[in-house]
Design goal:
By secondary structure, the chain is α/β, with parallel strands linked by helices. Helices cover 37% and strands 20% of the residues. It contains 14 helices and 13 strands. It is elongated. About 2% of the residues have low confidence.
Amino acid sequence: MVTHLTLPTCPLLVVKVGSSLLVEADGAVRRNWLETLVADIADRRRAGQKIVVVSSGAIALGARRLGFDKGGRASLADAQASASVGQILLSGIWSELLAAQGLTAAQMLVTLDDLEDRRRYLNITATLDRLLGAGAVPVINENDSVATEEIRFGDNDRLAARVAQAASAQGVVLLSDVDGLYDRDPRDPQAQLVPEVARVDGHVRIMVTGDSASGMGSGGMASKLDAADIATRAGIGLAIASGLRDHPLAALDAGAPFTWFCPREGGNARKSWIGGRLSVKGSIGVDAGAARALRGGASLLPAGATGVRGEFRRGDVIDIVTAEGETLARGLSEYDAADAARICGKRSGELEAILGAVPRQVLVHRDQMVLL
């Protein structure tokens, strides 16, 4: 198991940089600090490690240039306009500083739909692979200039985890304004840093306040735990670390504190994509017997289903929910919602008479499902 972020254990690393690290409260770029981070990236590239950057800051930079209040986040229209201006400024800064270190920057702007749609996801994977193979440093941001509320990640923490999946990375570093996850509000003098988390569960989530300390970004510790859950389910380790110090990546190598979320073992690329999906179209309830069968590796049969919620089509991602309301699994539905509702609780021999055709025998196949 990878327990730290060094070159031998992490050949491809995704580094996410938060808005509060890149941009001052007045919207000015923290250029001197950014130069130290780029120097760290260059050192790691020269040592053979591939780096992908997920960079916040476009909205904050654009809002300053346009003179918008509230950092450009007063409305969706303000955010989109700010991002349009800020993306040019942000990519120019990264390109200039990486070029000074002999590196080529490549800009990629993505939306939630780009990583939720299987074909577009694979296109992003292919582009990242080619860029990294050519020695470039991809700098990725959410395409806030066109994304609506319905198709936004809303934070770059979860985006970084999904990009790590697409790039087949082994590690993610979320550079933030705190050293990592604390067992309570870090402003409490009794708060203790949690050095390692084996699994993101309810006991871990209850530690967070859910607020962004700087007030500038759109994330917070809750979004970082979501990112850790996505990454670790895909077998990718994730660290939350402070970027407030100069040379933050070098500081990690030197022993600076951080919280490490251990990658889970097993799984495959397709199931990682399914499990990491953020847009779910609906759900199917199951009885206790079906829940036991699913935990044992079975497909979901109509006989074990108790009901359907939401509107979905065949191939859409849905959740499978127990009678207690626990989301047990996520998978690709073999039926649309209307037909699934008609055959809930029915035996295999009854399906043809109900549907009027030779039906598929399962609601969700085990090969298209991941337990949560």
